[in-house]
Specification:
heterodimer; A: 12 helices; 0% strand; B: mainly alpha; 14 helices; globular
C-alpha cells in the first residue's frame, strides 16, 4: 500500500509540472463536451424523446458517460504509456524490479491531473441533477454507484486486454483509438437495441454500456441489468487474468 | 506553387506515403472496419429511434433512407479526408528537430508533405468510392446524364477536397512551432473536423443561429457539402461547392505560405 501511495504522490508532482498541457487539455475537454451537448440539443429539436428517454434523462446519461470516461482515462493513460515503453524496448527495466509489474502498469503514469476536472464535474453534477439524485431511493442510488464503479473497471480492463497483445505480436496496438471508437456508442441508451441483443452485447462487450447501465438503474429502476453487467465484468476479469499470464509468458523482451 | 512541381519527385513521395499507410495494417483495419462501421451503426440506431419517436416521415426534407445515405457519404469522406496522420507526422518533424533535413531538399517542405499525404490517401480511395457505388446502383433512379454528372462531379470535388484538407492540416500542425507538443493539436483537430465538417449532423439540422457557420466553414467543404451535393446532384449545388473549395484553397494556400515564412524566420532549430 505504501508503494502505491508513493507512486501516486510522485505522479501528482510530475503532472503539476506541465501546466501548459493541463490548460490545453481543459480547453479541449470543454470544447468536446460542449459539442456533445449541442449535438444532443439539436437532435431533440425534432423529437421529444429517443427510445423513450427524454431530454433530462439523456443529458444525465451524457453526464454519467463523461465522468466515467474521465476516471477511466486517468488509469488508461498509465496502461497505454507502459505498453508504449514495452513496445519501444524500454520495458525490460520494469521486469527486474522487486515490486509487482501491475503497479507500474496501472499507477506509474496515471493522469492524476484529471482529478481536478473530475472534482469539478462531480460537484456540478450534484447541483444540476439535485432532483435526480435525491429524489430516487437509497437502493437505486447505491446500485447506481456500484454499476458506475464496475463500468470504470471494465473500461480499464478492455484497454489493458487489448494492449497485452503487444507482448505477443511485438507491435504497437492502437488500443486508445479502438477504445475511443467504442465510446461513440456509449452515448446511446440501451433501449435502441432490442432487449436480447442488448443483454448479449452487455455480457460480451460490457464497455459500450458502462454509462447506459448505471443511468438506466437510477432513472428507470431497471435493476436486472446489474446482474448481466456483473457477469460481463467477471468475464472480462477472467480474460484479463488468463490473457495477462499467457501473454507475459510469451514475452521475450524486444532488446532494450 | 504549381510551376515548381517536379512530377518524378512527386511520384516518389506519393509512393512513400502509400507504403507508410499500408505497413500499419492494424490502424488500416480499425479505420476501415471499426471506425467507419461503428460510427455508421451508432447514427443508424439513433436516427431510427428519432424517426420512430417523433412519428414524422421527413425531417428537414430528408427521409430515413436519405439520412442514412448522407451519413454513409459523410463518414466515408471523414476517413478519406483525414488530416490526423499528416498532423502527427509534421508535428513530430518539427518538435523532434528533424525539420532541417527536410528544408535542405530542393522541393519545398509543403509539397513534400502534400504528396506524401496524397499517396497515403490513395489507400483509402475505395472507401470514398463505396458510397457513390451504393448510391448509383441501389438507391437512386437517376437518368444517365445525371448519373454521369454525379460521378464526374464527385471525383472532381474529391480531388479538390483532398488539397483543402491537407492545407487545413498543414496550418494546424504549424502550431507545434509554438506549443512543442502535438497531443493538444491532434485532439483539437479531430474535434473540429467532426463538429464543423458535418460528420455529426447535416449543416441545416443545427440550431438556427449556428447554421451559417456550419454551412460555410472550410471543414464542411471537405465532407458535408460534398455529401449534400451527392444526395441531390444539380449544377447549382456542384458550382457552389466548387467555388467554395477553390476560394478556401486559394486563401489557405496564401495563409500557409505567409505563416511558414513567419515561423521559419524566427526558427533557430531545436537541435537536429
Amino acid at each position: 500500500m505504501k508503494i502505491k501511495f508513493h507512486f501516486l504522490y510522485k505522479n501528482i508532482l510530475v503532472n503539476l509540472y506541465y501546466r501548459f498541457n493541463f490548460l490545453g487539455m481543459m480547453c479541449i475537454l470543454i470544447i468536446a463536451y460542449a459539442t456533445k451537448l449541442i449535438f444532443l440539443d439539436s437532435l431533440l429539436q425534432y423529437t421529444p424523446s429517443i427510445a423513450g428517454w427524454n431530454k433530462l434523462e439523456l443529458v444525465f446519461l451524457l453526464y454519467t458517460m463523461i465522468l466515467s470516461l474521465l476516471i477511466s482515462d486517468t488509469i488508461d493513460s498509465s496502461v497505454l504509456r507502459f505498453f508504449q515503453k514495452v513496445y519501444h524496448g524500454e520495458g525490460d527495466v520494469f521486469f527486474i524490479k522487486p515490486i509487482s509489474l501491475l503497479n507500474y502498469m496501472f499507477l506509474a503514469w496515471a493522469k492524476t491531473i484529471n482529478l481536478i476536472p473530475i472534482f469539478i464535474m462531480t460537484i456540478g453534477g450534484l447541483i444540476y441533477f439535485y432532483n435526480v439524485f435525491w429524489g430516487s431511493s437509497l437502493l437505486s442510488l447505491l446500485l447506481y454507484l456500484c454499476s458506475f464503479a464496475l463500468g470504470i473497471i471494465i473500461n480499464v480492463l478492455l484497454v489493458t486486454n487489448l494492449s497485452c497483445l503487444t507482448f505477443i505480436i511485438k507491435r504497437q496496438i492502437p488500443a486508445d483509438f479502438l477504445f475511443s471508437e467504442f465510446t461513440k456508442i456509449m452515448i446511446l441508451p440501451m433501449g435502441v437495441f432490442s432487449r436480447k441483443v442488448g443483454l448479449f452485447l452487455l455480457v460480451l462487450l460490457p464497455s459500450i454500456f458502462s454509462a447506459a447501465v448505471p443511468a438506466a438503474i437510477l432513472l428507470k429502476s431497471d435493476y436486472s441489468l446489474l446482474k448481466y453487467q456483473s457477469l460481463g465484468f467477471v468475464l472480462s476479469l477472467l480474460v484479463f487474468y488468463m490473457f495477462y499470464k499467457y501473454s507475459l509468458s510469451r514475452y521475450e523482451g524486444l532488446g532494450g | 506553387m504549381l510551376s515548381s512541381i517536379n512530377l518524378d519527385i512527386a511520384k516518389i513521395y506519393m509512393k512513400n506515403g502509400w507504403r507508410v499507410v499500408l505497413v500499419d495494417r492494424a490502424i488500416l483495419f480499425i479505420d476501415i472496419f471499426v471506425a467507419t462501421g461503428l460510427t455508421f451503426l451508432m447514427q443508424m440506431m439513433l436516427w431510427k429511434y428519432i424517426y420512430k419517436d417523433s412519428g414524422e416521415v421527413a425531417i428537414q426534407g430528408k427521409t430515413f433512407s436519405d439520412i442514412l445515405l448522407y451519413y454513409l457519404y459523410v463518414i466515408c469522406l471523414n476517413r478519406f479526408n483525414n488530416g490526423y496522420g499528416i498532423i502527427e507526422d509534421i508535428s513530430y518533424t518539427i518538435y523532434s528537430g528533424k525539420i532541417e533535413l527536410a528544408l535542405v531538399k530542393p522541393f519545398s517542405f509543403k509539397l513534400q508533405k502534400m504528396f506524401d499525404y496524397l499517396g497515403g490517401s490513395l489507400v483509402y480511395l475505395p472507401l470514398a468510392l463505396l458510397p457513390l457505388i451504393i448510391d448509383v446502383t441501389m438507391f437512386s433512379n437517376y437518368t444517365v446524364y445525371t448519373g454521369l454528372g454525379l460521378i464526374v462531379g464527385y471525383l472532381v470535388l474529391l480531388v479538390l477536397s483532398q488539397v483543402l484538407c491537407f492545407l487545413l492540416a498543414f496550418i494546424i500542425s504549424l502550431i507545434t512551432f509554438k506549443s512543442e507538443n502535438s497531443g493538444v493539436v491532434l485532439a483539437l483537430y479531430s474535434i473540429l473536423a467532426a463538429f464543423l465538417g458535418g460528420a455529426l449532423l447535416p449543416a441545416n439540422y443545427w440550431p438556427e443561429s449556428m447554421r451559417l457557420i456550419m454551412e460555410f466553414n472550410p471543414f464542411s467543404y471537405t465532407m458535408g457539402a460534398i455529401s449534400e451535393f451527392s444526395l441531390a446532384p444539380s449544377i447549382n449545388s456542384f458550382l457552389s461547392c466548387l467555388t467554395g473549395l477553390l476560394i478556401y484553397i486559394c486563401i489557405f494556400n496564401l495563409v500557409s505560405n505567409k505563416l511558414w515564412k513567419m515561423l521559419t524566420r524566427d526558427y533557430k532549430g531545436l537541435g537536429g
